[in-house]
Specification:
about 350 residues, 6-stranded antiparallel beta sheet, 8 helices, 14 strands
């Protein structure tokens, strides 16, 4: 186990230095970091979890589409005073920083690595049996979110957070972060939970089997980077779509451990789940999807092409070559949202 400061002196496991996501290994506050970047004239909103922790109530604290604030807002979605893209026009030096955080200057998703399916399964096992239970034990909530260079919990307890960054686990409490290379489920559970993997999650959920908790989890760096960026891309797209609803007429964008997808629900008008999956047993590649609340009512309103559920999908291969991948994704999601309107 190492603190984030100690990792700068490590060798093969060291994320510091050339890694563009090195900041993700330390104790962080994403909104405060963004606030430091833009200064006091504006109020920053970001896509990542930020403190303070919320242990009661329905949602976590920070909402990227909240249009209210103490000062004019710079936001990742176009419902505030200024988008991050607009803010960057006169500040190109911050473009790489914003791109890594899926705020603006959007990067393209590359081709899917050959090790992706293996890595996706290993990471889901880690999420189901270790990461999600850490939050659940504190407040009964299981959902996660995209985080810089990985995925992790919203803040819980005493401003705590657990996240995966590449082949490392980060456990943060307030101003301190401890980092440990990922090896086995058993070692990860000891580090995060102080005990064994929470295998009770296998009951009642369609999740990967826990398997041998002592075996090395096969997580490939390049494949994990694609997985993290898929969730960053999806979060950016879904929050933009969600911002087009009236306030309080959608659920929050969350990453669900059991299905391993990131999604939100439209609660009025276009009643459906809008989401993004990294792939599953039925559809091998990552895909976007729309799942109507009442399919029988809307069955004739659109071309529902999904084979494994009653809805629509757009596989990654269907928009990977698009000039603007985010625009293609939003076009798909908006088309089905509009087909469901006024049901």
């Amino acid at each position: 186990m190492q603190t984030a400061d100690e990792m700068s002196s490590s060798s093969d496991d060291a994320p510091a230095g050339a890694d563009p996501y090195a900041a993700a290994y330390g104790a962080g506050d994403s909104r405060a970091e963004a606030q430091h970047v833009i200064g006091d004239e504006w109020f920053a909103r970001v896509l990542e979890p930020s403190p303070p922790a919320v242990n009661d109530g329905v949602w976590f604290a920070d909402d990227p589409v909240n249009a209210g604030g103490p000062r004019p807002i710079v936001s990742p979605v176009p419902n505030a005073d200024l988008t991050w893209d607009e803010w960057l026009r006169d500040r190109p030096d911050a473009a790489e920083w914003a791109a890594a955080r899926w705020l603006a200057s959007y990067q393209r998703l590359p081709s899917i690595p050959s090790t992706f399916a293996m890595t996706r399964l290993a990471v889901q096992r880690l999420v189901v049996y270790v990461i999600s239970p850490a939050r659940q034990r504190a407040n009964g909530k299981i959902a996660l979110r995209w985080t810089l260079g990985g995925i992790g919990t919203p803040f819980f307890g005493d401003d705590e957070q657990v996240r995966i960054v590449g082949r490392h686990l980060v456990r943060q409490q307030r101003g301190t972060a401890e980092v440990q290379p990922i090896s086995s489920l058993a070692a990860a559970a000891e580090f995060v939970l102080g005990g064994d993997p929470d295998v009770a999650r296998a009951e009642g959920f369609d999740v990967p089997p826990v398997g041998d908790v002592t075996e090395q989890l096969p997580i490939d760096d390049r494949a994990f980077r694609f997985l993290s960026n898929w969730y960053g891309f999806a979060t950016s797209v879904l929050e933009t779509l969600r911002a087009e609803w009236p306030p309080d007429e959608t659920s929050r964008v969350q990453l669900w451990a059991e299905h391993f997808d990131v999604a939100f629900n439209g609660l009025t008008g276009a009643r459906a789940t809008f989401g993004a999956s990294p792939g599953d047993a039925a559809v091998e590649e990552p895909y976007l999807y729309v799942l109507p609340t009442d399919f029988d009512v809307v069955a004739t309103r659109a071309d529902w092409n999904a084979k494994s559920f009653r809805g629509a999908i757009l596989p990654f291969s269907g928009f990977a070559a698009a000039p603007e991948q985010r625009d293609a994704a939003l076009t798909f999601l908006r088309r089905y949202r509009d087909a469901l309107a006024d049901v």
